[in-house]
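Schema walk-through. Below, the input block comes first and the output block second. Nothing else is stored per chain. Lengths vary across the set, and this one has 97 residues.
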Amino acid sequence: MAKTKTAGYDVAEHLRTPEEMAAYLEACLEEANGDAAFIAKALGDIARAKGMSQVAHAAGLSRESLYKALSGERTPNFNTILKVIGALGLRLHAKAI
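--- output ---
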């Protein structure tokens, strides 16, 4: 019997357009249930898709600190989140539930 080979799935490889990135973030915001680290990880996925060095430069952060902040293992401060969202070319919106 032949062994089945599996490969890891990286969502960043599938986020090609700003519209796809925005839709992904929107879906993650809906699924997060208040988990800020989950949102940070989603922003990290989008940043990797766009190019972490480019996003770090645009956000005024070092690449290393951006990787740490968006790893999903910690909760970055809101100022960092706002800088990253701006660097990604995205905008936060609020709507009544």
